[in-house]
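My current task is to audit a protein record that another person submitted. My question to you is simply how this chain folds and whether the tokens agree. This is what I was given:
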Amino acid sequence: MSENLTIMDADTLLSTPMQRASFIIDGFLPQGVGILSGAPKIGKSWLMLLLSLKVSQGLPLWGMKTDKCDVLYLCLEDSFQRIQDRLYRLTESAPDNLYFAVTSGQIGNGLQKQIHHHLKEYPATRLIIIDTLQKVRNTENGNKGMYAADYDDSNWTETDLFTSGWATNGLNTVNGSHWFRKDFQVSAQQAGEKATLRLGCIVDADSVYVNGTFVGTVSYQYPPRIYTIPAGLLKAGKNTITIRLFSYGGRPQFVKEKPYKILFGKGHELTVKKMLSQPGQFACEEKVEVVGPKSSLKMSVLGPVRKDTQVEVSLTDARAIGVTAPIRESGDIAGSGACKLVGPAGEVELTEGVIAAKRHVHMTPEDAEAAGVKDKDIVKLDIQSPNGRSLTFGDVVVRVSASYATAAHIDTDEANALCPGKECYGEMIK
């Protein structure tokens, strides 16, 4: 760099022709490099996705004109599935000139070549979004983020996640970002396998890295954290999990007594045994043992996986193993029964999740309209048994969704009382 300043006097400046700045978004996003910064989990990625959509479509953003062009969006902390979910919520017609990538090289280590190749193949690209900058920063020469596998955490304090001490300064709750790292060992036989990481529930939000690679994020406290560790990431010997916890204004915490382990073992995939009546749902070959104070029973796992662990038992089975099973709709597990689940690779204590399913009927919107009912209506089912035990079931909840197939669901106690045989028919009574 020159020791002298490069200067221009005002008279020369006024008489020198200058090229006007080019804007992708009029008055908002000019040509050049821009950095969007802000507090974690306030919607920066959502904003960038909306912005990229508007620019690629040539539609105004908040009343500001956009210059339509091809857009490359490097979503380096996301998956294609997550991007798809967000696109569904933002648009019904996604453009074919908006391109996504979820992995890339780093600055000085492949990124420039990748971008150059993309621009050569798609020359109409005028907007490139990198989300986030930290993911493309070269970590050589000591420039390492706290989630890097070899980050020096020797001066960090060891803590018990389920105590509240780390969440305060001794007097007040400390909100913002909290970083946690945990080393664990992987055998040579397990190295390279795909795995599932379960981290219970975290208040409020988190981003998780394994060996410096981002594996998932959840932006609010209620869903259990179930993250996939892709094949090839785990190595023989020491591996590192890094968690960045975000607290928005309450008491940051890891919720105790939630599943923090892998039930079926690292890399296990559920095996479909048979498809069920509802589209996409299936019974699995895998079974778990449901353990209560009195006894236990083997139960099949139903797929696909859900955000909450739920155990549906009949009232007869609940009494037999000594657990409480309130009659609830699926998903309504707050304050429900507790049990232990034992699988081939470990066990999980559930403080809630055991219910007896409230009888219900799934209906498509078309069938519901034809029957004159709507979602959450309560009806009766008059079912004729070929074995002389016809019954009328009351308190049947109607559940309507375009993702359903029309079918009535009762549990084994109710079916045994009906003695239906292989086929039986009935009528829904409003």
Observations:
- Residues 260-264 have pLDDT under 50 and may be disordered.
